[in-house]
Amino acid sequence: MRHDLDDLAEDPLEPLSTPRLRLRAPLAADLPRIAELANDRGVAEMLARVPHPYTLEDAEDFLAIAEGSVVFAVALAASDEFIGVCGLRPTERARTADLGYWLGRPHWGRGYATEAAQAVVDLAFRQGGMDCVLAGCRAINGRSRRVLEKCGFQYRGTSTFVSLAAGRVAGEQFGLDRRTWESLKAWGRLGAEAC
Ligand SMILES: CC(C)(COP(=O)(O)OP(=O)(O)OC[C@H]1O[C@@H](n2cnc3c(N)ncnc32)[C@H](O)[C@@H]1OP(=O)(O)O)[C@@H](O)C(=O)NCCC(=O)NCCS
Question: Superkingdom of the source (predicted)?
């Protein structure tokens, strides 16, 4: 069945630019780097669909699935070097998308995930016409929870999900609705200059 998100999944994806990053369609040239960075137990165990060990064939499968989806390769703007993935998946609910992301370990801790996620969330609401963006993370994933908090997501409850690398794990669900996103964007523009 067609989802509202399908309108965004143009082929090729329109790239997004942020101050330090370029989000673009994943390319065959990225395959070796995807395989290298995703082949990290600490990455795979935080995700649902990334196996460990992760091979070049897994990267090829990812590339095939990404085609026609709203899945961006996150690349450094200065060099176009692939550093991770950020994208949206349709959910069973109309005008509701699920946000997901991972970065290669050498690139953690520089605010890149937040920068990429904010660009994709803006896309979801601005061009994608979504009413809500959902995201989930493992209960032990403080880094990812922090990314979601910095993007304005609110805690919605607990869950469990199956990770290919870690088995069934405890998770937390977060959501960002359109009105909250609009308010945060307006706050950025209209907030007081000094406290
Ligand atoms: C989660 C992930 C994407 C974060 O990437 P990142 O680029 O390091 O994220 P950012 O730098 O934008 O933000 C990380 C925040 O977490 C904080 N943080 C770091 N370690 C933390 C910890 N152990 N507990 C809580 N917060 C932590 C950082 O201080 C930062 O917050 P701050 O800016 O307020 O200081 C990256 O670690 C990753 O790919 N992990 C494996 C896959 C994964 O977990 N994907 C998400 C699945 S839901």
Answer: Bacteria
